[in-house]
Amino acid sequence: MGSIASKSTEGPNDDVIEQIVCKEDDIPNNGMQEFEIGNNGNKILVVKQNNEFFAVGSKCSHFGAPLVKGALGDGIVRCPWHGACFNLKTGDIEDFPGLDSIPSFKVSVANGNVKVSAKKYAIEHPKVVKPLTKRNPENKHTFIVIGSGPAGTECVEKLRQEGYDGRLVWVTKDSYLPYDRTKLSKSLSSEATSILLRSHQFYESGDIELLNRVGVESIDTCAKIAYLSNNEQIKFDSMFIASGMTPRSTPEVSKYDNVFTLRTIEDAHKIFQSLSSDCHFVVIGTSFIGMEVAASNFSKVKSVHVIGRSDVPFKESLGREIGERVRELFESKGVIFHMNTSVINYIGYNNRLSEIELSGGLKLKADVCIIATGSKTNVEFLAGSNIEINSSNGAIEVDEYLETNVKGIFAGGDVANAPIYPTDAKSSLGHWQLATYHGKLAALQMIGKKTPIKSVPFFWTALFGTSIRFSGYNRGYTDVLINGDLENFRAVIYYCKGNEIVAVATIGKDPIAAKFAELLRSGRTLNKEQAIDDKWLTEEEDTVVCTRL
């Protein structure tokens, strides 16, 4: 529906557009609709909830997805692509990925008309970067954040956005400013400037002391002193550990210049520069990094061989059904799989790998090899610190507030063994979305705003142009229910634990993964009967539970 009437008025800082966008009855309760505003084709999203109207930017701040195609929850709208959530009143980002909020606009209703008042600048700039508090020299408190992945990045930003004005030291072994690591496996040639999340000037505006190429050597948890690799000793009041993971490798390949793991920009560039049209490319590992690298570089090399211990790729994370179909997709492109096998020998000369021998005796030519067989937690510096480490996965034990067994020290991201909402389980999950949320939550805890975990795991991948989205937690699932056409990549896969649906994966079925994540976040459950033929989706508009608006 187009606009009904509009006028432009001059505000103190910017031109303001006042426009009647629709009639009061044009949008049903718990409904949303896009409207053009102004004369330049810009759009806003208008939402009706609890018979109250809200207006926010129409696009997700992460990749620009149309929010009108997303999921509506209690006081939030959720992106259909990657699950980011935005507050309907303020536009603030509440769950992730992404760092930026979206604009919110004033709405009034009179004589049955819904009128929006919006500054032109806000309409034309769909991302809102919230300002950072400066350091107050009178505040003698010191917070330390370790790691510049999504958890650490969000934590330092949230601390300053929430008004923390003490000293803030950010320690990272990385050479670069924080960047979107998820893009590396999809494009090895990514330049740092194209995937940076923030600029130097941004962090300087908040007096954040960013120490690149610096690690933490040890922590005295009694005296609360961090000992750094640059020989600094910093006494702290609170700490957030988001030191992440390091890819697993094997000692016998360390001498070979053409065997790689992928974690950093430097890793990606070394791999990319090693590829050529006559290259035999071998990928060891069939989870996300290995499969994404195989898919995104297939056209650049002579052959791609993928080696896996299980019988199908993604078996542990997405299950056999999706794994089999993904394997068929890859094989249709010419990728060769060697499954139910392992590497028993690496053969090479003069620091160059030339062949890989498999457990069945087959030898593969290998001009370039990537090992993508999992990661180990970066917790060595915690030896002797009294911080509890889980003996099974090597991650730091934390409670529902991300606090370790040492008061005032928090941990998050994939280095933390954290509760998985809304289950009773704990795990270390390497999801970008969840790690970012951990960073936000840790910042709130550090400044005394105690907030329990309430974020549903959400992840995604893209393989040969096919996107897979996943929400929930499916460890220990008993069976699956498939709706749609998996053969043609238009399907919903429901993971069941008994009669309960605990997770969903979708292919070509947006925004179902986002809707399921919102259902779980709201405290509701889904059973098999409701999932048959996706019946629950027709009930969703009437079952949004609104309590906080």
TrEMBL record:
<keyword id="KW-0001">2Fe-2S</keyword>
<dbReference type="GO" id="GO:0016651">
    <property type="term" value="F:oxidoreductase activity, acting on NAD(P)H"/>
</dbReference>
<dbReference type="InterPro" id="IPR028202">
    <property type="entry name" value="Reductase_C"/>
</dbReference>
<keyword id="KW-0411">Iron-sulfur</keyword>
<comment type="similarity">
    <text>Belongs to the FAD-dependent oxidoreductase family.</text>
</comment>
<dbReference type="InterPro" id="IPR050446">
    <property type="entry name" value="FAD-oxidoreductase/Apoptosis"/>
</dbReference>
<dbReference type="InterPro" id="IPR036188">
    <property type="entry name" value="FAD/NAD-bd_sf"/>
</dbReference>
<dbReference type="GO" id="GO:0051537">
    <property type="term" value="F:2 iron, 2 sulfur cluster binding"/>
</dbReference>
<keyword id="KW-0560">Oxidoreductase</keyword>
<dbReference type="GO" id="GO:0046872">
    <property type="term" value="F:metal ion binding"/>
</dbReference>
<keyword id="KW-0479">Metal-binding</keyword>
<dbReference type="InterPro" id="IPR016156">
    <property type="entry name" value="FAD/NAD-linked_Rdtase_dimer_sf"/>
</dbReference>
<protein>
    <recommendedName>
        <fullName>Rieske domain-containing protein</fullName>
    </recommendedName>
</protein>
<keyword id="KW-0408">Iron</keyword>
<dbReference type="InterPro" id="IPR017941">
    <property type="entry name" value="Rieske_2Fe-2S"/>
</dbReference>
<dbReference type="Pfam" id="PF00355">
    <property type="entry name" value="Rieske"/>
</dbReference>
<dbReference type="Pfam" id="PF14759">
    <property type="entry name" value="Reductase_C"/>
</dbReference>
<dbReference type="InterPro" id="IPR023753">
    <property type="entry name" value="FAD/NAD-binding_dom"/>
</dbReference>
<dbReference type="InterPro" id="IPR036922">
    <property type="entry name" value="Rieske_2Fe-2S_sf"/>
</dbReference>
<feature type="domain" description="Rieske">
    <location>
        <begin position="19"/>
        <end position="116"/>
    </location>
</feature>
<keyword id="KW-0274">FAD</keyword>
<dbReference type="GO" id="GO:0005737">
    <property type="term" value="C:cytoplasm"/>
</dbReference>
<keyword id="KW-0285">Flavoprotein</keyword>
<dbReference type="Pfam" id="PF07992">
    <property type="entry name" value="Pyr_redox_2"/>
</dbReference>
